[in-house]
Amino acid sequence: MSTSRRALLGAGVAAAALPFMPAEAAAPFVGRGAPAWYRFRFGAYEATIVSDGALPLGKAEDAFTGAQPGQIVDLMRANFLDPANAVLEQNALIVNTGRQLILFDTGMGDSMGEASRMFGPTTGRLLRNMRAAGIEPSQIDLVVLSHAHCDHCWALVDAQGNRNFPNAQVALAEADLNFWTDDANKRGPAFMVPFIDGAKKNLSAYRDRMVMVRNEQEVVPGVIALSAPGHTVGHTVYAVTSGQEAMVYTGDLAHHHILLLRHPMWEFAFDTNPQQSAQTRARMLDRFATDRTTVMSYHFPWPGTGRMVKEGQGFAWHPTPMDVTSLG
């Protein structure tokens, strides 16, 4: 059965003809939403996903490349998404293992002044949402970085350069540390200058407490690093395990749940090595789909947990329903 526009308009006219009933106790608009955090059990661990806010990229065709003309616009519209503004979420994972409190990526923060708002005013909300979830930054024992881009490490320090996580170590691939703190890499796209300046400011504050992650090695018990280069030279995803439960935090392996899953060989404008990034993405997504692995994506729709399945030449995203009563 289909509902026509004429039928809907007719229903509106009929409703308008009903007798007017004055409102007895109209409630005012509240004007604010709930803090963006979600908590659930994961094996013997407690996991909390905290939002740093939405990150709008602007025109989808400018951010994602490799498609035929019109293909991206058509795919966005077919999935009820605005092709003029591709919006990514920023879902930071916090895992309490009972021994350590571990934060995966930090969001944009405010360490770089106006540059911290390069993607608009809706980013930089991680710390306030952490506190709303009952977690103080000083409680974090380890910050695990997938890579050193602005939306993943710029909240390590505040605008004055003070550590936001004063008791934490910072784990990162050495290749990314070296690349994003080297002024010689400022050549190329214009965004490289603020990206490197921001990485230097944020990472240098933790130089005496850095942990270099290595492929297929434990970072700490229950967290294993898996090299996934291309988006950056040292981009890393992390397998989190507790008993029989396993989940992979995928960082920026795929930025969009439609475009880069349906077409994993398309490229992304902020990739350091776009061809390598696409190859890594296709290989890892195939592995996750085959193994039916639970993944947690930093940029997928809130809260970013789900599974991939093979579909045509690409993949489809199946989000895990939130269980808001699991810890109640």
Order of helices and strands: HEEEHEHEEEHEHEHHEEEEEHEHEEE
On the 0 to 100 scale, the average pLDDT is 93
Distance between the termini: 40 Å
Number of strands: 18
Helical residues, percent? 10-25%
- Residues in β-strands, percent: 25-35%
Cα-atom radius of gyration: 22 Å
Classify the secondary structure makeup into a structural class: alpha+beta
Number of helical runs?
A: 9
* Dominant shape: globular
Strand order of the largest sheet: 1-2-6-7-8-9-10
Low-confidence stretches: none
Largest sheet composition:
7 strands, mixed
Keywords for this entry:
single chain; 328 residues; alpha+beta; 7-stranded mixed β-sheet; 9 helices; 18 strands; 25% strand; globular
Would you spell out the secondary-structure blueprint of this structure?
Blueprint: H1 5-16, E1 37-42, E2 45-51, E3 55-56, H2 60-63, E4 64-65, H3 71-78, E5 87-88, E6 91-96, E7 101-104, H4 126-132, E8 142-144, H5 150-153, E9 169-173, H6 174-179, H7 192-204, E10 210-213, E11 218-220, E12 223-227, E13 236-242, E14 245-251, H8 259-262, E15 267-268, H9 274-291, E16 294-297, E17 305-311, E18 314-319
Parallel strand pairs: 7-8, 8-9, 9-10, 14-16
Antiparallel strand pairs: 1-2, 2-6, 3-5, 4-15, 6-7, 11-12, 12-13, 13-14, 16-17, 17-18
Description:
- There is one protein chain.
- With 328 residues, the chain is of the alpha+beta class.
- Helices cover 23% and strands 25% of the residues.
- It has a seven-stranded mixed β-sheet with strand order 1-2-6-7-8-9-10.
- β8, α5 and β9 form a beta-alpha-beta unit.
